[in-house]
Amino acid sequence: MELIAVVMLVLLAGGWVVLNRIGGAKYRSVMKLHMEGLRLKRLAPPMLYVVERLKLMSRFPLFFFKIQRSIQKLNGQRYSAELTLLYAGEMMAYGWLLLMLGCLLTLAMKDAAGLAIGGAMGVLVPAAMIKDMHGKVVKRDQDILTELPELLNKIVLLVGAGETVQKAISHCVEQKKQQVHHPLYRELIKMKDDLEGGYSFQQSFENFSKRCAVQEVSIFTTTVLLNFRRGGSDFVLALTDLSRVLWEKRKAITRTRGEQASSKLIFPMVVIFMIVIVLVGTPAFMMMNL
């Protein structure tokens, strides 16, 4: 088993060096792209070469489509294909490092368990990365849904007070321009920039809906575009009905988050309970032995 570990270690290290020389320069432009959470970009070029050489993205289109869709929601549609490739290289780099670590553990412990641990971690860590990205996408969509009803209420009040739809939305965005990290207002700020750059209101609003990629935002966009020309009570009534539905969804999301937060406290409470039992029970057992 030690011989197998040595051979695998040499192949993994030598393979990285060879592949880096062959295809490393090809991916320099991709390496310059920024994506939050990537830590092994310097080790990624050989992995990117393997992904493209083996045509993994065309062999597993559904898997990579889901990753690219999540990346588009979190980082925008620009360079989404390149970022998907970079993220795949990051996952493979983690698997490669952990497999090397398993070989080193096997040599240190002189047991095949080290190689098994390294191989298992090499599969679990990339899976955890995908799960973490999915969690970020879900949180982003929920943040948009929880903030959208408040935005609708402000628009309804401003339109009812005599403002036009465009001015009402611009006024709401101007009030929240400091919240650039909030997904909803980040996309609204981009929509306002599009309007100032010469795009029509309809085109800017449709692009906003595509970037958000949330069903409720699409309904909001459709409602606004169908009714903003008519204005008056019809427009206010349509947004009020939509706002009522969105408030119910916001309540459901808040309730779900509360349940998730309480469920996360169960394990620490069990651990604390066990510690208390040990602290209280140990002296009693010691006295019984005496």
Automatic annotation (TrEMBL):
Keyword Transferase: no
Keyword set, alphabetical order: Cell membrane, Membrane, Transmembrane, Transmembrane helix
Residues in Type II secretion system protein GspF domain copies: 152-283
Compartmental location: Cell membrane
One family name in Pfam for this protein: T2SSF
Residue ranges crossing the lipid bilayer per the database entry: 85-107, 113-130, 265-286
Topology in the lipid bilayer: Multi-pass membrane protein
Name of protein: Type II secretion system protein GspF domain-containing protein
Organism, scientific name: Paenibacillus cookii
Species lineage: Bacteria, Bacillati, Bacillota, Bacilli, Bacillales
